[in-house]
Design a protein that fits this description.
CATH superfamily: MoaB/Mog-like domain
Number of strands: 6
Number of helices: 5
CATH architecture: 3-Layer(aba) Sandwich
Strand order of the largest sheet: 2-1-3-6-5-4
Strand content: 15-25%
Oligomer: single chain
Number of domains: 1
């Protein structure tokens, strides 16, 4: 049974997608393409997307740019969230977070364990949090993981999470 709270917004959620990979191109970025398609099919808007190398500086630089853009509500990354030496997405993102949404990573790993990949789920460092009044998700690079995260966790709660991250602005504008 779903207990999703629907939030009335004055505009669709607008997001940015970052693919972290040393090998992907615009043509071969299946994860980024899937994130875009699922986001847009849900009625939201992708205002920007980018592919960058597995580098803390490159990842953080792009995220900091998007964190300064007022109309970006959510930032989703794909790739670089595992345990390989080159996987540095989490190290790049975590210092930028104001608050971590621990339940996202916990629930994602549980769903991955029970529905998708089994015990390999323990190697995922998927994470979510808020930064500069935006919601940030760091997802694995596999399309199966992206589908699972988007369909079971992110899309059902995205409007509510964006509302929670920004409601202080809405209350301040009423005073």
């Amino acid at each position: 049974m779903s207990h999703t709270i629907r939030v009335q917004r004055d505009r669709p959620v607008q997001g940015a997608i970052l693919t972290v990979s040393d090998t992907r191109t615009a043509e071969t970025d299946r994860g980024g393409q899937l994130l875009r398609r699922l986001t847009e099919q849900a009625g939201h808007i992708v205002v920007d997307s980018h592919i960058c190398k597995d580098s803390v500086e490159a990842i953080r630089g792009k995220l900091e740019e998007w964190l300064r853009i007022e109309n970006v509500d959510v930032i989703m990354t794909t790739g670089g969230s595992g345990i390989a030496k080159r996987d540095v997405t989490i190290e790049a993102i975590r210092p930028l977070l104001d608050k971590e949404i621990a339940g996202f990573g916990e629930y994602f790993r549980w769903l991955s364990l029970t529905e998708d990949i089994g015990t390999r789920a323990m190697a995922s460092r998927a994470l979510a949090g808020t930064s500069c009044d935006k919601v940030v998700f760091a997802l694995p690079g596999s399309t199966g993981a992206i589908k699972l995260a988007m369909n079971r966790l992110i899309l059902p709660e995205l409007e509510h999470l964006v509302w929670e991250a920004t409601k202080h602005k809405h209350y301040a504008s009423r005073q």
